[in-house]
Prior knowledge:
Largest sheet: 5 strands, mixed, barrel
Strand content: 25-35%
Number of helices: 1
Shape: globular
Order of helices and strands: HEEEEE
Radius of gyration: 13 Å
Amino acid sequence: MRWLVVCAAIMMNAGCGDGSDRGGPSAESSAVRGPVSNGCFRGRLTDEGDTCQAMRTESGSLLTLGGPLRGFGPGDRVCVCGFNSPQPFCRQGTTFIIREISDTCGDIR
């Protein structure tokens, strides 16, 4: 039931994967480094995510993404802008809510 409330709140902003609530923040949550600009990260989408799409940033941090991927998938190099989820719902990495996603950061306003 808790995951329904969390997913509903997040979907109002950006949507979410399957909404699984699997526990609290991971040890890596505070270790995300290397934003391109305010709230934006470059990296490659990977298949590391258990319940959410994962992205390895250029600095090596693991983000798990909530929100529409706009046709991007594992192996694609992308730039994502958004914010850390106030309620982590992915099993690993830092849960990051996508505001915008593009293949280059220059395309993001």
